[in-house]
Amino acid sequence: MKILPFFVIIPLGTAFLISLFGKRIKNFADLLANLGTLSLLVFSLYSISEVFTHKILVYKVGGWIPPIGICMVLDGLSSFMLVTVNLVSFLVALYSISYMQRYTDKPKFYTLFMLMLAGMNGIIVTGDLFNLFVFLEIASIASYALVAFGTEAEELEASFKYAVMGSVASSFVLLGIALLYSYTSTLNMADISLTLSNKSNGMIVNFITVLFLAGFGLKAALVPFHAWLPDAHPSAPASISAMLSGVFIKTLGIYALCRILFNILGLSHQIFFILIILGIISMIVGALLAIAQADIKRMFAYSSISQVGYIIFALGIGTPLAILGGLFHLFNHAIFKSLLFLDSGSIEYSTNTRDLKRLGGLNARLPITGVTSLFGSMSISGIPPLAGFWSKLIIIIAAIQAGYFGTATVAILVSIITLAYYLKFLGFAFFGKLNETWFKIKEVPWTMRLSMIVLAVICVVSGLLIMPLFKPFLQSAVNVLLLGKGYKEAVFAALR
Q1: At residue 74, does pLDDT exceed 70?
Q2: Rounded distance, CA 335 to CA 83, Å?
Q3: Where are the alpha helices (H) located in 220-246, listed in sequence order?
Q4: Which of 44, 216, 268, 392 is the least crowded, having the fewest Cβ atoms under 10 Å away?
Q5: Share of residues in the chain with pLDDT > 90 (%)
Q6: Which residues on adjacent β-strands are paired with residue 58?
Q7: Cα–Cα distance between 291 and 286 in angstroms, integer?
Q8: Angle between helical axes of 76-99 and 28-54 (0-180°, round to 10)
C-alpha cells in the first residue's frame, strides 16, 4: 500500500524539479520527465501483482483512519487505469523529446505535462470525493494551458473555449459533491456508499446523479457535451492531443463517472438507459462529423467522441460481458488513438500541414509513420485480428445477448463508417502520387518513431488481454464495477 502516494508524489516532484532546473541544465527536462513517467509505469505494472495478491489496498494518509482521514485505494479498476494512463504517458513523453523542440519552452511543457499526469493519477487512486475534485482541477488547469501552448490565435481561442466549458463541468461536479456531503455528512467514498445504503434514495440523490452525469459527461466529451473537444484537440501539440484523447477524457470523464455511479450512488434502470442513449448518440454524431473533415486532427477528435460512445454504450448495457467489452475498448482506444494523434504530429512535423487535400504519397518518404498509421486506423475500425476488432465484437455480442438488437446494428454500421473515414485518411495522406512539395522531407527522429512503433505493436498484441493468461488483469477491473455498492465493504474490510 505504500506505493500509492508515489503515483502523485513522483509527477508533482518531477514538475517541481523541472520548473527549477529545466532551463539551467541542458536536457534535464527531457531526462527527468522520461524517468518520472517510466518509474510510474513500473509502479503501475507492480500494482497488478499487488491487486492479484490482496484484491484491495487502502493507504491512510497521515495515519488517520477513514472516514475521518483521507485515504487512497488500489483495486482492480484503479490498477487497470494506472497501467493505461502511465503506459501512454511514458510513450508520449518519449515522443516529446524531439517533437517539442519546435516549441519555445520545453521545460514549461514538461512541468504542465507532469502536473496533468499527477492530477489523473490522483483521481484514480483517491478514496475521497473532494480530493477527486481537487485532482480533477489540477489536471484540467494544466490541460487548459497545454492546449494553448503554441500561443497562436487559434490555440488561445480553443483553450479559452475549453476552459469555459471545463469550468462549467467542474461547477456541476462541485455542486454534486456539496449536495452529497450535505446529505451524508462525509466525503469518503466508501462511507458515502454506506450512509446512502441506510437512507432512502430520494429526489436529492437523483438530482446529484444528473449533476455528475452532466459534469463528467462534459469531461468525457459525450454528445451533447462535446463542443469543446473538436477545437481543443487540433490546437494542442500532438503530444497533448494524444494525452487528451488517449487517457484524459477517460480518466476525468469515464473512470470518475463509473466509480461514482457504480460504487457509490448505485445504478438504476433509468441511469443504464440514459448511458445507452448517450453512447448511441455519441457514436453516430461523432462518426458522421468525422467523415466530413479534411483536417487530420479534427477528424481524429470527432472519432474520439464516437469511440467514447462505444464505451458508454457498453457500460450502459451493464452485463458482465458488456462491461468487459467496454473496459477492453477503453484500453484499446487509449492505445490506438494516442498512436493516431502521434502519427498526425509526425505528418505535421515533416510537412507543416494537417490538411488532407495537400498531402498524398507520403508512404514513399515517411514509411514508419505510414505503417503505424495503417495499424492504428485498422484497429480503431475494427479490422481483425487487431485489438479494436475484439473489443467491438464483445460489445456487439453483449448487446445482442441483452436484447438490444437495434443498437447492436447501429454499432456495426458506425464501425463501417469509421472504416470509411480512416480509409479516406490513409488514401489522401499516404497513397497516390507524391506531391512535389514533399520530395525532400525525411522520416521523423528516432524517439518519435520508437513511440509510434511500440504503440502499433500493442495494437496488435493487446487482443491477448482476453486470453486466459492475461484476462485476470482486465477481469479484476470488471469485477470492481460488478461489485457495485459492495465497494464499501471491501474498503472497510481492507482497513481492518
Answers
A1: yes
A2: 11
A3: 229-235, 238-243
A4: 268
A5: 47
A6: 73
A7: 9
A8: 160
> Each residue of 149-169: pLDDT tens digit?
876 777 888 888 889 999 999
**Per-residue pLDDT band at 322 (split at 50, 70, 90):** very high
Cβ–Cβ under 8 Å, residues 11 and 122: no
Find, among 125, 121, 217, the residue nearest to 172 by Cα. 217
Q: Answer yes or no: are the C-beta atoms of 98 and 448 closer than 8 Å.
A: yes
The Cα–Cα gap between 276 and 311 comes to 10
Q: Other C-beta atoms within 10 Å of 413: how many? A: 13
Virtual CA dihedral for 80, 83, 84, 89, nearest 10 degrees?
A: 160
Q: Is 283 exposed, middle or buried (0-12, 13-18, 19+ CB in 10 A)?
A: buried
Q: What is the pLDDT of residues 234-269, one digit of tens each?
A: 788 889 989 988 898 888 889 999 999 988 888 788
Which of 63, 47, 66 lies closest to 55 in space, CA to CA? 47
pLDDT at position 376 is: 92
Say yes or no to pLDDT of 112 above 90: yes
Cell numbers found for residue 489: 465493504
Work out the average pLDDT over 477-485: 87
CA-based nearest residue to 408, from 479, 314, 291: 314
Decide if 484 contacts 49 (C-beta within 8 A): no
* Cell numbers for 239: 503530444
Residues 6+ apart with CB under 8 A from 195: 184, 185, 186
Given a cut of 90, whether residue 68 has pLDDT beyond it is: no
- Per-residue model confidence (pLDDT) at position 438: 76
Nearest Cα neighbor of 414 from 332, 337, 303 is 303
- Taking the CA atoms of 206, 209, 213 and 219 in sequence, report the sign of the dihedral they define: positive
- Look at phi and psi of residue 183 and say left if phi exceeds 0, alpha if psi is from -120 to 50, else beta: alpha
CB 374 within 8 A of CB 388: no
57 phi and psi angles, rounded to 5 deg: -125, 140
Q: Are 418 and 382 in contact (CB under 8 A)?
A: yes
Q: How far apart are CA 477 and CA 468, in angstroms?
A: 15
State the pLDDT at residue 1.
63
Q: Which three cell numbers stand for residue 206?
A: 437523483
